[in-house]
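Progress report, Aim 2. The chain analyzed during this reporting quarter is listed below.
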Amino acid sequence: MSIKSISIRIEEEMLNKIAYIADYEGRSVNSQVLVLIRENIKNFENENGVIKGDIKPDTNVKPTRK
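Predicted structure tokens for the chain:
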């Protein structure tokens, strides 16, 4: 699996809030965004069927540290 990079435009307030959540969960902002993306993919596939591909939504997700 190759790792790709993307950049996004995000409002400062939203970035601050996601950073707060990431810190609370013991993750980096990048890891938190990946968790959210994977959750979205999993929810989509649960409702609409599996998207063909080798990557599973739970791959490379660090466990939460509460």
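Residues 35 and 61 are 6 Å apart (CA to CA). The chain has two helices and no strands. These observations will guide the mutagenesis work planned for the next reporting period.
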